[in-house]
Design goal:
Strand order of the largest sheet: 1-2
Distance between the termini: 40 Å
Largest sheet: 2 strands, antiparallel
Number of domains: 1
Radius of gyration: 16 Å
Order of helices and strands: HHEEHH
Helix content: 40-55%
Shape: globular
Length: 106
């Protein structure tokens, strides 16, 4: 029987990466799954659970200069799950662009 972990989510991801040799893509899918299959109320950002397809209002979400429309903002305000998924996707955009630009250093 395994002992209950008293760590935070970041520590759990680190353990999973080390134990199961997970890739960055795997970790992204795990974190997306944690929201997609959660009990958060509201609709999903993604179409049919496909993380490469988002609702039309968010079609440019992966662009660095994405600007949210009033219609998209209304959807986020009404759907907690969608709002959290949106925040996660935008965090990926920010992180990955900083990584590509070398902002994190060598």
């Amino acid at each position: 029987m395994r002992e209950l972990s008293r760590g935070n989510l970041t520590e759990e991801y680190v353990k999973a990466i080390q134990r199961y040799d997970l890739s960055y893509k795997d970790v992204k899918e795990l974190s997306r799954n944690s929201l997609e299959y959660s009990f958060l109320p509201g609709e999903s950002l993604y179409i049919n659970g496909d993380y490469t397809k988002v609702r039309n209002e968010f079609e440019n979400i992966w662009n660095v200069d994405f600007k949210i429309s009033p219609k998209a903002q209304k959807l986020l305000d009404e759907n907690l799950k969608m709002e959290r998924e949106f925040v996660l996707e935008r965090a990926y955009v920010t992180f990955e662009n900083k990584l590509l630009s070398g902002e994190f250093g060598d």
